[in-house]
């Protein structure tokens, strides 16, 4: 362990005084050289270590951004093709030139942030955007699957009310966590659902197959966390703020938003 600390310290020390083969050999033979130097100037050592860490993080960020740009360019050339089945619930104009398919989890706090960001984007572009909400309930969120089932069961009888159900959950995620399934029932009742039919439909083949298909499609496209978005086939992974959506949308449209 002492030798390990010596190696780390040497990396920082060398950035202060320069590194040569002679210095490296001397430290290998006597690591106390480094420790004594640190003791004499601990503040400077910490500054150098922190600076090196920041530089490493910045390099990693740049590498990640470069990889993301490369991936995005490839997807503009070869966009992903999610299924939008006949009768699928669509938020917004069905004839919109931009289709955003969202893979989401009703209990995920990042999805709530993504909901607010996407809401802002929809306000910017109006009828140019339509949204298809798909399900990716994560194992760590026990209420995500029940909420997805309520969404799809409600869609079978009140398709025009499903978006309100969706919005109510994301606007009141704390209530979902506190009241659990009772909160879902309360929303459905408030929207005028036939609760007998709804409870029967929760575990119906139509509902379970649709959610399973959404989850399978999300994983095929490499979405392992939530939220994830496909903007005319170009992916955006995470609760990114509106400018990231704008960049992709404007390129698809070939102009700037009005």
What does it look like?
The protein is of the alpha+beta class. The chain is 63% helix and 9% strand. The protein is built from 12 helices and 5 strands. The chain has a 5-stranded mixed sheet with strand order 1-3-2-4-5. The longest helix has 36 residues. The mean pLDDT is 86.
Tell me the layout of helices and strands:
Blueprint: H1 2-17, H2 21-29, H3 32-40, H4 42-77, E1 91-92, E2 98-104, H5 109-125, E3 129-135, H6 144-157, H7 162-171, H8 173-179, H9 181-190, H10 195-201, H11 205-220, E4 228-231, E5 234-237, H12 242-253
Parallel strand pairs: 2-3
Antiparallel strand pairs: 1-3, 2-4, 4-5
Helix pairs in contact: 1-3, 1-4, 3-4, 6-9, 6-10, 6-11, 8-9
Specify the CATH architecture of the largest domain: 3-Layer(aba) Sandwich
Tell me roughly what share of residues is in helical segments. 55-70%
* Assigned CATH superfamily of the largest domain: Glutaredoxin
Shape: elongated
- Give the N-terminus to C-terminus distance in angstroms: 61 Å
* Rg (CA only): 26 Å
Can you list the strand order of the major beta sheet?
A: 1-3-2-4-5
Task: Return the domain count.
Answer: 2
List low-confidence stretches. none
Share of residues in strands: 5-15%
Q: Look at the structure and give the CATH class of the largest domain.
A: Alpha Beta
């Amino acid at each position: 362990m002492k030798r390990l600390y010596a190696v780390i310290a040497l990396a920082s020390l060398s950035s202060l005084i320069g590194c040569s083969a002679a210095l490296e050999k001397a430290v290998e033979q006597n690591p106390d050289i480094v420790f004594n130097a640190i003791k004499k100037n601990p503040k400077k050592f910490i500054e150098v270590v922190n600076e090196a860490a920041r530089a490493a993080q910045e390099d990693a960020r740049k590498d990640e951004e470069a990889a993301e740009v490369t991936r995005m360019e490839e997807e503009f050339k070869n966009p992903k093709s999610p299924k939008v089945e006949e009768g699928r619930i669509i938020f917004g104009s069905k004839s919109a030139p931009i289709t955003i398919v969202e893979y989401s989890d009703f209990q995920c706090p990042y999805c709530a942030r993504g909901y607010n960001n996407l809401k802002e984007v929809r306000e910017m572009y109006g009828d140019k955007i339509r949204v298809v909400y798909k399900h990716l309930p994560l194992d760590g969120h026990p209420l995500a699957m029940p909420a997805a089932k309520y969404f799809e069961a409600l869609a079978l009888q009140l398709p025009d009310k499903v978006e309100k159900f969706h919005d109510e959950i994301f606007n009141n995620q704390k209530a979902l966590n506190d009241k659990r399934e009772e909160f879902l029932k309360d929303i459905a009742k408030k929207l005028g659902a036939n609760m007998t039919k709804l409870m029967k439909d929760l575990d119906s083949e139509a509902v379970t197959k649709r959610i399973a298909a959404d989850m399978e499609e999300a994983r095929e496209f490499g979405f392992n966390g939530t939220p994830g978005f496909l903007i005319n086939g170009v992916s955006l992974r995470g609760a990114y703020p509106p400018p990231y959506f704008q960049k992709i949308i404007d390129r698809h449209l070939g102009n700037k938003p009005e």
